[in-house]
Amino acid sequence: MPTPPGPPAAGTPAPPSAAPTAPDGPPADRAGRLRLPRHARRVWLVVHVACSVGWLGLTAGVLALGIAGRFSDDPDTVRAAYLAQRIFADWLLIPISLLSLLSGVLLSLGTTWGLLRHYWVAAKFWLTLAATLASIFALRAFIHDAAGQVAAGTVPPDGRAPHVLVIAPSVALLIYLTATVLSVVKPWGMTKRGRRLAAEARAARTGRAAAPAPGR
Predict the structure, then answer these.
(1) What secondary structure does DSSP assign to the chain, as a single string?
(2) Closest C-alpha to 134, from 109, 101, 106, 163
(3) Which residues pair with 28 in a beta bridge?
(4) Tens digit of pLDDT for each residue in 4-50?
(5) Is the distance from CB of 171 to CB of 64 less than 8 angstroms?
(6) Residue 21 — φ and ψ, nearest 5°?
């Protein structure tokens, strides 16, 4: 999910048309969208970056274990690899993936980037959502199946689980790297919805600037 723009430089005066404040809530931007306060945005940004980096590292670790389990000739290594994968899947995969997704959505909706205003944000959202669902409902099932086989001593005839525990983490790792590139490069510009909302915001600012000052 997107990294919101940084705060203004120290000592920069606030613009005369400051954003209005929503009752009992965070400030809203000129289009009426709720905006995260700066301290809340920083907290969620830390959470998002930490979870995203953790998810990337977790997937790389799961891939390494999958390679070891698939191609090692040592039965003890095969057993240890798949049992370790199950620990990662049960204890880390769900909370890290969900926190990464939810914090990214919150940062998008709570900043000027929006969720569907820019193509790169929308693409990253759908990639992250697909990876989250696939990791929770598909990858974990494959891992549990392989770990259950080695724990019960009923592994396949060649002593190894299928290639899926190498292929699935490889695809997931490629998705996360693609999302990272999108966050840095920010390609493709604004969506049709984003251009429309930007035009509405410009029109609203122009109308306020043209309105006579109170008391005149």
Answers:
(1) -PPPPPPPPTTPPPPSSPPPB-TTS-BB-TTS-B---HHHHHHHHHHHHHHHHHHHHHHHHHHHHHHHHHH-S-HHHHHHHHHHHHHHIIIIIHHHHHHHHHHHHHHHHTSTT-SSSBHHHHHHHHHHHHHHHHIIIIIHHHHHHHHHHHHHT---TTSS--THHHHHHHHHHHHHHHHHHHHHH--S-B-HHHHHHHHHHHHHHHHHHHSPPTT-
(2) 101
(3) 34
(4) 444 444 444 444 333 333 333 344 444 445 688 999 999 999 999 99
(5) no
(6) -110, 130
> CA of 84: how far to CAs of 2, 63, 138, 176, in Å?
32, 11, 17, 22
128-185 tens-digit pLDDT:
999 999 999 999 999 998 898 888 877 655 555 668 899 999 999 999 999 999 999 9
**How far is the C-alpha of 15 from the C-alpha of 45, rounded, in Å?**
25
User: Would you say 168 and 142 are in contact if contact means Cβ atoms under 8 Å apart?
Assistant: yes
Question: CA 28, CA 16: separation in Å to the nearest integer?
Answer: 16
For residues 105 and 81, give the distance between their C-alpha atoms in angstroms, rounded to a whole number: 34
**Of the ranges 52-61, 104-113, 149-158, which one carries the lowest mean pLDDT score?**
149-158
Rounded (10°) CA dihedral 95, 97, 102, 107: 120
